[in-house]
Amino acid sequence: xxxxxxxxxxxxxxxxxxxxxxxxxxxxxxxxxxxxxxxxxxxxxxxxxxxxxxxxxxxxxxxxxxxxxxxxxxxxxxxxxxxxxxxxxxxxxxxxxxxxxxxxxxxxxxxxxxxxxxxxxxxxxxxxxxxxxxxxxxxxxxxxxxxxxxxxxxxxxxxxxxxxxxxxxxxxxxxxxxxxxxxxxxxxxxxxxxxxxxxxxxxxxxxxxxxxxxxxxxxxxxxxxxxxxxxxxxxxxxxxxxxxxxxxxx
Amino acid sequence: xxxxxxxxxxxxxxxxxxxxxxxxxxxxxxxxxxxxxxxxxxxxxxxxxxxxxxxxxxxxxxxxxxxxxxxxxxxxxxxxxxxxxxxxxxxxxxxxxxxxxxxxxxxxxxxxxxxxxxxxxxxxxxxxxxxxxxxxxxxxxxxxxxxxxxxxxxxxxxxxxxxxxxxxxxxxxxxxxxxxxxxxxxxxxxxxxxxxxxxxxxxxxxxxxxxxxxxxxxxxxxxxxxxxxxxxxxxxxxxxxxxxxxxxxxxxxxxxxxxxxxxxxxxxxxxxxxxxxxxxxxxxxxxxxxxxxxxxxxxxxxxxxxxxxxxxxxxxxxxxxxxxxxxxxxxxxxxxxxxxxxxxxxxxxxxxxxxxxxxxxxxxxxxxxxxxxxxxxxxxxxxxxxxxxxxxxxxxxxxxxxxxxxxxxxxxxxxxxxxxxxxxxxxxxxxxxxxxxx
Lengths: 250, 438
Hints:
The structure holds 2 protein chains of 2 kinds. Chain A is α/β, with parallel strands linked by helices. Chain A has a domain at 4-88 and 164-249: Rossmann fold (3-Layer(aba) Sandwich), CATH 3.40.50. Helix content of chain A is 36%, strand content 29%. Chain A has a 6-stranded mixed β-sheet, sandwiched between helices. The radius of gyration of chain A is 18 Å and the shape is globular. The two termini of chain A are 36 Å apart. In chain B, 54% of the residues are buried.
């Protein structure tokens, strides 16, 4: 069994425009990878396409989860196979309480009603770790949440649903340093041999708290460089221009 | 469509041993029926439903009482299921035009509560029936096509319910009436509810099918709330998808009377409900809720009327529902304020959620205001299910059906939450869930 998420030569269009132009990337289970790059590089598109966003068109290439091709699966089938996307802009769902929603989601993933005590134990643990209040559980999903609360709620879901492969799409954007630390604490608590994450971010800042094993850089719809954590620091110091030149020169 | 009554109303009155005044009322209604035309597309109130009305098999034989009685054990399975969870204080069961079973605690009878068939009431409380029957829904009201069905119903009703709650009496639990439709019959029923001063009651009427096959049900419900009376009222139809249901309801609310009303359309091929409240006393309060779900080829048609005559009264219509497949929904509502209706608060809201591209909705709220010192508002919306929400839920592992179910439940949560009868709200949530998944 090949325990990894693999993107092979992925070409993706949206409204007739090619956004991903041959992305290849491998995320082995148990590792945390950062995906960096300038605005418009296609990072968020890649996250959404891996999750199965139906508004994007896969033109070429494959996505494999543990060796099984998932390119044509529906988003909920992918999720039930262990994939999770933390949204850059979490969607408000009025009328649906956080706790009820999570119980249903867990039920769909497990194929049966989760044991009630275990479910609440998971919730409680996550809420405490995120410095949150149980009152959030009876609120409607993301409705009236501040930007920071929405991001925290994505991590709450991550911790309760316990996917094997998580994509965090700019979870750090719009967070102050305290909120950033809380979110990082949540993600770090998940780390281990049975969890991996693709952390999409613009900034090095988050990577001080979630230290990646590998850093990928995307530009113009492709992964142009892969390196260790030091690559993120270099980008922080020097920006992306040098890399653009390097890619152009290659 | 029929042009002459299939049964002679005088013979019907004789067969049902009715008093002279009622026989006359029936023949009077016959004259109205024969004088007014059937509604067509040109009839404003029937613009979206005239086509479906044409398909209604009015030529089916009229359901007549046949003297059937059942023991509690013999009651239809669907009724027994509802009884097991409805926690009713008393109930009546009709199969076709027969009242087959009745149960009312002695304690309520001792307090003077009357809960029985209309014909039984005609025998035992003739003056109360005569003083009120046809008063809220006369055979002739507008003198046009809108009178066709009320006239037919007034001329040929064969069975019905009478509820009387004396002054000051409060009934703890809800009273229930179950009408089990018989396929192949035209059933015409009436309900008359009378709450005396400061009486309090809850009343649920459910129309259901035990068997497949087309049936037609034509029903008229008159509700009289004397000063200070409080009534929670619900009319729920879950008929089989071949059946047709035509329903009109009028409530008359006197001073400080309060109505919490609920109209539920989940079944039938064609269901039309005309629900109105007349606010004739100051301080009267009419909350009118509606829940519906049209699937397959169902057509659910709703009309509400908030007619304010007295000053300082309040009415609030909140109708919400969903359509999927090729289901169609119509909502037409009118807030009508007479010049005497100063200081009125009247609100009207209709919201619709569509689960498919083929489903459709017409929503037409209307105001007709002849008073100047009032607060009125109306609004309507039609929205498809939110694809972003579906995708978000899907990324958590919740498939399309589950997500639709969650979003429909969320959409209907506030209207279900306003139903005074909590037990009923929980039952409806379950039926709706089955419909989303079905």
